[in-house]
Design a protein that fits this description.
Oligomer: single chain
Shape: elongated
Largest sheet: 7 strands, mixed
CATH class of the largest domain: Alpha Beta
Number of strands: 9
Radius of gyration: 20 Å
Distance between the termini: 24 Å
Order of helices and strands: HEHEHEHEHEEEHHHHEEH
CATH superfamily of the largest domain: P-loop containing nucleotide triphosphate hydrolases
Number of domains: 2
Helix content: 40-55%
Number of helices: 10
Bound molecules: guanosine-5'-triphosphate, magnesium ion
Length: about 280
Amino acid sequence: MAHIHWYPGHIAKAEKKLKELVNLVDVVIEVLDARIPESSVYPDIKKLLGEKPRLIVLNKADLADETKLKNWIDFYKKQTGFPVIASCVSKNNDISIIVNKVIELAKPKIDKLVAKGLLPRPARVVVVGMPNVGKSSIINKLIKKGKTKVGAKAGVTRQQQWVRVNPKIDLLDTPGIIPLKQEDQFKAGKLAMVNSVSENAYENEEVARELLEILKTKYPQAVKDYYNIDEDFSLEAIALSRNWIVKNSQPDTVRTAVMVLTDFRAGRIGKFILDDDKIENQDS
Ligand SMILES: Nc1nc2c(ncn2[C@@H]2O[C@H](COP(=O)(O)OP(=O)(O)OP(=O)(O)O)[C@@H](O)[C@H]2O)c(=O)[nH]1
Ligand SMILES: [Mg+2]
């Protein structure tokens, strides 16, 4: 098993910050990575968000196993009672769905204000999620101005300001970053696979080997076809199949690990979901 370092000391501070953001809004947009619909959920998400209405967005759906993703969407709808949608950065129609769902989720709160004799105001919304899940991409699409920085590295986003998305929605232009807190090292490993963990926190080779093990059970044919290998899913076999040799005729597993992770993250090997199906087991 790959070992992923995480830092309990950072978590209290990150949680406090998140709670402050959540207190400012009527609705939270929780962004998950569609390739790891379970592993990208924060273990204490309920404690963190309380009863706050929530829209769950499974982003990077373009990289995920479509059939399994549909099951996950149904599962989360039933489990949470909140709306759940798939989205991806290259499509624009998901934005109108997000807008409509947010307005719907905020309505009871706004109605309550009106009932108290206050004027209706736009729903207040924040986007939260683990690093690199696509928070900034979604914010950018919502404000359509490309003002928020979008970056490939974990932890790019900083400052904070409200943006009027439309007359009914005000969005915090800074996302809430959910920290890595994962006693479950298998889940943490999957977060590393999708590049949601700082590169300093793990060894590429370990994580790539674990990824290949998962793919061997779940999607063996795609890997065999893509790398032109047989039953041996080791980094060594893949290195040898490309003749990537370093000194003493050893297979170049360092280079191969980087390649495998890069290929997987770009969706070149195939569209996968790494987490086990949850359909049978609805109440955990
Ligand atoms: N294929 C694919 N790539 C996406 C999608 N959404 C975002 N990305 C890419 O994923 C990377 C991270 O996206 P961001 O929007 O910066 O993610 P973030 O959650 O704001 O990341 P941090 O600010 O680092 O926490 C970028 O390279 C995006 O282009 C998607 O739906 N599909
Ligand atoms: Mg960002």
